[in-house]
Request: fold
Amino acid sequence: MARPSEAARIARVESGLAPVEIPGEKEPRRLSLQQWMELYKIPGVSVAVFEKGALVWAKGYGVKQTGGTAPVTPDTLFQAASISKPVTALAAVHYVEAGKWSLDENINDKLISWKLPENEYTQTEKVTLRRLLSHSAGTTVHGFPGYAVTEPLPTVPQILDGAKPANTAPVRVDLVPGTKTRYSGGGITLVQLMMTDQLKKPFPRIMRETVLAPLGLKHSTYEQPLPAALAPMAASGTYFGGTPVEGKWHVYPEMAAAGLWTTPSDLSRIAIEVSKAKAGKSTRVMSQAMAKQMLTKQSESFGLGFALQAGDDFGHGGSNEGFQCVLTAFSDSGSGVAIMTNSDSGFLLLDRLTAAVAAEYGWKSYVPHPERPFIQVDLLARLKDVDTALAWYRTAKRDGNGGALSADDLNNLGYQRLKEGQMADALKILKANVELYPENANAYDSLGEAYMTAGQQADAIANYKKSLELDPKNLNAVKMLEKLGAPLSTSTPAPSSAQSH
Reply:
């Protein structure tokens, strides 16, 4: 779907992704969008570009399901993941203006079916809608893994209490509200419950009536699970290495935080509406004054729902099981791009593709993100080999050129290769990690897991013991040692919390 005049521009975007410099090679490697997708084993990508308040093109690439033949089209549904949050915020502020609730009252005054436990952190400062939408309410639970299609689904109160069958911790306040920005999907789930308690309607209906239908978004729904009638239109999630998500996707009863199914075109229409509202050209969802408030920093990096960058840049990223996506928009010009992928590897491509679109359309407000060390080392491993990647990493660490380098870079790369079944490479990477970061307990924990997966029990035990020596609170190492038949001696301090990977 494109204006005829856009054909040449689309072709330039597809061939204009930033090249990669490989040590020892004279010319940078240039890959087309299709080649990038093959490199990262991303089955499908969908893109929509908008300029001056209008959609100018939308195009699908690849297939809806790994190993399948059904093509991705502009109407293929993807999970928007955390881009669900700012769309939820649009409905929440709509009802602020309708007088149903306010931005700054205690959320507990509007919760009916469940109450957020008050504690020492909420004695003077309260959890409010403004703070929840700007991730500054002090609430816990960063994100949600979702539920396999065959698993029982918890109610929202069960999710908030961390009660079975919920698979996440309870949502609680452990920072004084208003004192710190900390991303919290748990906080947005509180907003979901407040809205359904007050409006006495199912959340998908609230969103349809308030945002989706008024904006004419025909390919968007918050229904979870996805209705059977819409399933044929949906892309299937894919893990690193191209393995399909069992059951095609996960289900997210945390709808406000992660439940939106949509297309890049519909996300573009949402961003266009926000820009028009800010300019005083539309009041279909909110007033000009409210739009300006949404796009004003309420906390360190968030307005009301949207992440805010430099200047007039607003948007959000999204990461669900097997799906990755991003929305980048500029409120003054009404321009931007939405990209959705059906792969965990999608995040490796999103910034590069966004930058190619921004360069083609000359968006002066766009500030490219510096390439993360993880992406660079991963690219070298894919385009050349693991030895080249590790040599680059060692040089960068030795010379101090990679100020952002951390043990997580190689840890993530090792896990990725482990998931892709490349055992020799995974072990090589994780061994290098403990060599470069000998005081990092999690590096030894991860190497222990790799050895365990490889069936090298003695090496696994040795590395788990080293991890526990460095971090006596590493509960995972304790569990793994018990599983391997190497229980701890009575002199080992008792663990008190889990070490995350």
